[in-house]
Amino acid sequence: MSAAELPALLTGRDGRPHPFSLPPGALGDAAAARLRREADEWLAPQFRELVNVTAEPFIQAIADLAVPRMVFGRVILLGDAAFLPRPHTAGGAAKAASNALALAQALVQEDLRIDARLGHWETLQLRDGRALTERGRWMGDRIMGLQAA
């Protein structure tokens, strides 16, 4: 599916456009049939079966979120507020926990001022967040057949 096709797919059976997702029951019959055809073509048997037995499928657009900064004085962004990885990375909860653990470890370092501790923490978390975001993009391209193994 191309980005140009997304607005039509996110238009419900009632003709109302939705910006990011379509709830269960809103997907039109033609789009549901296409979803099932593409599931049969692209997905592993277990996921194919899941799609085919779902009476009212829903649609959720997948988007990347990556911030350029996580520290703003003594206010910070953690977890999905800073980096929203694609679902196929299975990294959201682990990333948030990693952010929090690294923050706790940074804050107990008594040899540095708090601003320096947060700056060091931010550098490492930005690196890790960008890496997870890029990995998710790469995985998505592989899943969609846009990139060779």
From TrEMBL:
SUPFAM superfamilies hit by this protein: FAD-linked reductases, C-terminal domain (SSF54373), FAD/NAD(P)-binding domain (SSF51905)
UniProt name for this protein: 2,6-dihydroxypyridine 3-monooxygenase substrate binding domain-containing protein
Q: Where is the 2,6-dihydroxypyridine 3-monooxygenase substrate binding domain?
A: 4-64
Q: Which domain of life is it from?
A: Bacteria
Which InterPro entries does the annotation name?
DHP_3-monooxygenase, DhpH_subs-bd, FAD/NAD-bd_sf
